[in-house]
Amino acid sequence: MSEPKELSPSFEPVAQDATDLPEGWLQVQSMDLDAQGVARKPDGKVVFIDGALTSELVTANTHRKKNNWEQASLVAIHRESSQRVRPGCPHFGLHAGACGGCKMQHLHVGAQVAVKQRVLEDNLWHLGKVKAETVMRPIEGPAWGYRFRARLAVRHVIKKGQVLVGFHERKSRYIADMQTCKILPPHVDAMLMPLRALIASLDARDTCPQIELACGDNVTAMVLRHLEPLSADDLARLRAFGAEHGVQWWLQPKGPDTVKLLDEGGEQLSYALPDFGITMPFKPTDFTQVNPHINQVLVTRALRLLDVQPHERVIDWFCGLGNFTLPLATQAREVLGIEGSEALVARSRENYALNQALALGHKALSATEFVARNLFEMTPEMLVADGAADKWLVDPPREGAFALAKALADIEQSRIGAEGAGPLPAGAEGWTPPKRIVYVSCNPATLARDAGLLVHLAGYKCTAAGMVNMFPHTAHVESMAVFERA
């Protein structure tokens, strides 16, 4: 387990000398990246407290000690935060068997947003030495029923004589005994107990470890991972359940490439981006955003910030199945989408062709090319070979876009003749860097690292940054930043 990270206070702490408190009491000064309260003992030692909120006076039980810090669990609250709320789910909490899917249900959702915004700002400054000129208003959406994608663990617990379906317990490999889940769409939440009964009825109940959920606008798909072939009776049970509950079953006997529909036909899994007239078909194991409500707003804001003009060429890095690429193709002269997965590139091309066909009688999509490439091995030479673009959209996984940012920085350092810089790559004399970059991030630490390269070495300034509450009640921080040529 890595060392906890302390942040600056998320809210103004109450001024009180720790030495004035009754013995054993702690004043919580802030919250950390894992939604733990951060307090200091009279001797200055930091204590990370599960379940405690900023400004509270608490007592806690220490269960891990290091030289400079301790980890503890909340025992009692002597002064409660005004931001503390009753959790919306009975399985949330610090009790034995509590679900580990959420970490912040005890904190008002508006305060959750404030904490995450501070995480973003702190990371940008402390890790990248970057401060955004403007802090954008957070993107928020429904706090419940938002999770249209989920990986549910399955376990037949022989000793208990029951099947469990859900997320893992807090800090445990065991599956929580979940009877409801309020972050799942209501119709899926209502299916949890019937799902348990279904798995319990299967001949293969001991060899089905996982169900992957993927909801589209009109289709609810479930991928059943099974380690042995399913009997005819089991297939009949799945079909009956699907007919009763409106589930499109997919089967996965081995790796992700073995996923296939139980029965061909029926409506295709897809979601819409109505602001751009785009429809995005996808397979249940493809990467799509967990929260479709937020995704629609995210795409719209990203393109508004990019401000693409009809004469401009745009590159969409880490394009996936075209979530940003196809909307960009409604505005730009030319778009290049680059992605590491061959399968997603193939899906992008299919989605482009579909939407081009749907655009008959309307404005056609601009010329768009999709390329598969390992973007974690990007070089200045490769960057120049892709040609100049007026704008970039960057949407990397948690690892960030270090190689891409470094390649851009290396070219700039060569161009200005910085000490230790290498020669300009062939063809770079006429190559121009993008005027604007919109960077969508699911990890503020790697965003901050890459922002440091862009601002301090690549010739950009960070004009705006803001958080996106893609995962309410969790400590996950999604964000967006805008970089302009300085």
Short synopsis of the structure:
Helix content is 24%, strand content 25%. The chain has 486 residues and is α/β, with parallel strands linked by helices.
Would you kindly provide a written description of the structure presented here, covering whatever features stand out?
- With 486 residues, the chain is of the alpha/beta class.
- Helices cover 24% and strands 25% of the residues.
- The chain contains ten helices and 21 strands.
- The protein has helices at residues 109-128, 186-189, 192-201, 232-245, 292-306, 325-328, 342-358, 380-385, 402-415, 444-456; strands at 26-31, 37-40, 46-50, 57-65, 69-79, 134-135, 149-157, 162-166, 210-215, 220-225, 247-252, 260-261, 270-273, 278-281, 313-317, 334-339, 367-372, 391-394, 436-441, 460-468, 478-485.
- Strands 6-20-21-19-18-15-16-17 form an eight-stranded mixed beta sheet, sandwiched between helices. A six-stranded mixed beta sheet has the order 8-7-9-10-11-12, with helices on one face. The chain has a five-stranded mixed barrel with strand order 1-2-3-5-4.
- Helix 1 packs across helix 10 and helix 9 (402-415) runs parallel beside helix 10 (444-456).
- The two termini are 40 Å apart.
